[in-house]
Design a protein that fits this description.
The chain is mostly helical and about 60 residues long. It has a domain of about 40 residues. About 60% of the residues lie in helices and about 0% in strands. Helix 2 packs antiparallel against helix 3.
């Protein structure tokens, strides 16, 4: 049986996602495997959504 994502997983803050990204890079020693790269790409999308799609302040 597949597990549905928790509501809290869907609304993680940019800081929480950023921490997970940093941990992924640290665990990998700076060289991502193909599986790690897939996870990294998913995390980047989640981080962008959490930040409103941009890390730059509006002009």
């Amino acid at each position: 049986m597949s597990r549905s994502p928790c509501r809290s997983d869907a609304t993680r803050t940019a800081a929480v996602v950023n921490k997970e990204i940093r941990e992924l890079w640290q665990r990998s020693g700076g060289c991502l495997s193909p599986e790690d790269e897939e996870q990294y790409q998913r995390l980047l999308v989640e981080w962008a959504a959490a930040t409103g799609g941009s890390s730059r302040p509006a002009a």
